[in-house]
C-alpha cells in the first residue's frame, strides 16, 4: 500500500514541471496540451510540498534511531471557546489546522493520532484542539468543516469529524447528509444548519488565524505549554510519525524552559 502511494506521488511530481512551465503570465490558461491554469498549477505545487515532506520522512533512517525534529518556529495561539479532547488543564496543548479533503490530514489520523490520543490525551497530559484550514483547491472542504460544526450542535462533533476524515475522498453535499444519518443525527436540523451556512464565518476565523501565523498548508500544528489563553510553543507542518510528536512532547514535559528557546 505504501509503495503504491509513493509511486502515485512520484507520478504527480513528474507532471508538475510541465504544468508549471507552460502557465502564461496572466494565469488565465496554459499553453500547449496541459489544459490547466496557473492557479491549478500553484495548487499542485502546494500538494507537492507536502508530498515531498512525507516522502523525506518515510526515507529516514530505521525507526530504532532517534526521531528527527521537524523545522519549528515559535508560535502563540489564543484558543477561545470550542470543543477539545482531553483535560482543560492538561500541561500541554496540540492544535491541528486541517482540511477535510487533505490526504495528508487523513494520513496523520490514520498513522499517528490514535496513539497520541492513547498515550497523551487520555492520560491527561495533552489537550487536543481542532481548527479548520480549508484550502482553495478543495471545493468541498469549507462545507465539510461546517458539517463537523453542525454535527457538534447535536453533540457529535468528534464523531462527525472522524467520519469526514475517513471519507476524505467523498465529501459531496449528499454524502454529508448520509454521514449525518449514519450517526443518527436529526438530518432535517443538520440540513438546515448546512444550508444556512451559519458556521461559515467561524471557519473563516480559523483560516484567518492560520494565515496570521503564516500557516498555509495542512496538516499544520501548534504545540506547546497550555496557557490561560491557549498555547505557547511552536508551529510546524506535516503528517509526521508518532515518534516525532512523542519526542517533542516528552521534551516539553521535562523542560520547563523550552518555550523560551527555539527548537533545534
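Q: What amino acid sequence fits the structure above?
A:
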Amino acid at each position: 500500500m505504501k509503495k503504491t502511494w509513493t509511486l502515485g506521488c512520484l507520478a504527480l511530481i513528474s507532471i508538475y514541471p510541465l504544468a508549471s512551465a507552460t502557465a502564461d503570465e496572466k494565469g488565465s490558461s496554459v499553453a500547449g496540451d496541459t489544459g490547466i491554469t496557473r492557479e491549478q498549477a500553484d495548487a499542485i505545487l502546494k500538494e507537492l510540498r507536502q508530498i515531498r515532506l512525507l516522502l523525506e520522512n518515510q526515507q529516514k533512517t530505521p525507526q530504532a534511531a532517534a526521531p528527527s525534529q521537524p523545522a519549528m518556529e515559535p508560535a502563540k495561539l489564543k484558543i477561545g471557546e470550542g470543543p477539545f479532547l482531553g483535560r482543560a488543564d492538561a500541561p500541554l496543548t496540540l492544535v491541528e489546522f486541517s482540511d477535510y479533503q487533505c490526504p495528508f490530514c487523513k494520513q496523520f489520523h490514520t498513522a499517528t493520532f490514535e496513539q497520541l490520543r492513547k498515550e497523551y490525551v487520555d492520560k491527561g497530559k495533552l489537550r487536543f484542539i481542532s481548527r479548520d484550514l480549508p484550502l482553495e483547491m478543495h471545493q468541498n472542504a469549507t462545507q465539510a468543516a461546517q458539517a463537523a460544526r453542525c454535527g457538534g450542535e447535536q453533540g457529535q462533533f468528534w464523531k462527525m469529524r472522524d467520519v469526514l476524515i475517513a471519507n476524505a475522498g467523498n465529501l459531496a453535499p449528499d454524502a454529508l447528509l448520509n454521514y449525518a444519518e449514519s450517526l443518527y443525527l436529526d438530518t432535517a436540523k443538520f440540513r438546515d444548519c448546512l444550508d444556512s451556512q451559519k458556521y461559515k464565518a467561524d471557519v473563516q476565523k480559523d483560516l484567518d488565524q492560520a494565515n496570521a501565523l503564516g500557516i498555509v498548508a495542512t496538516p499544520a500544528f501548534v504545540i506547546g505549554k497550555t496557557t490561560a489563553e491557549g498555547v505557547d510553543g511552536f508551529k510546524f507542518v506535516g503528517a509526521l510519525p508518532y515518534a516525532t510528536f512523542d519526542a517533542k512532547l516528552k521534551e516539553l514535559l521535562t523542560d520547563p524552559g523550552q518555550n523560551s528557546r527555539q527548537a533545534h
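Q: And what stands out in the fold?
A: The two ends are 33 Å apart (CA to CA).
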